[in-house]
Amino acid sequence: MSNTPPMTASPLTRAVLEIDEYASGLGWDQPARLFALVDTARLRAEQPSLADRLGLRDESDSSGLTPIEQDEIPAGKPLDEFLGTIAWPDAVAGCALTVERLMLPPSAEASVPDGLDEARLAKWVAEHPDRQEVRMTVAVLRDGARESALRLREKDTATEVLTGSDLVPGLAEALTATFAD
Predict the structure, then answer these.
(1) Where is this region: Disordered (predicted)?
(2) Between 17 and 120, whose confidence is greater?
(3) What's the predicted TM-score (pTM) here?
């Protein structure tokens, strides 16, 4: 079953779910992936050959966003440092990132040992019995709009994908910063 959203969903929500579905098709244990979001109608008008290669011949949806995957994110470089190096051309309306992480339920916060450095904390989370693997897809537009999709590995079906604008606020803010002048 496809998790393609209804046409009544916002273009940003449709783009986030399209990227989530794409990432889902690649399976788990994947590296982070970065996408430029471009206005589909503008892409068709300004770069018709690229639009054709991307299969964007249908002109019935003039309000959509087309995700275009960017080069691979350098391995070993912290994500926040990498995002700090990005600058987008004017033709890019927004961007999105999909990344896998371990997460704990809020109830586990009280049991985090004091004084752990980042490496020890990551190890503690990885060994915690209540940890969950999650794939987060976060997208932002230049105008500040944002959307996210979360998919748990243990509930890896399109009907279990959670969406919302404030699910991963820190990552949304980091992506928004890539549009700062």
Answers:
(1) 53-72
(2) 17
(3) 0.83
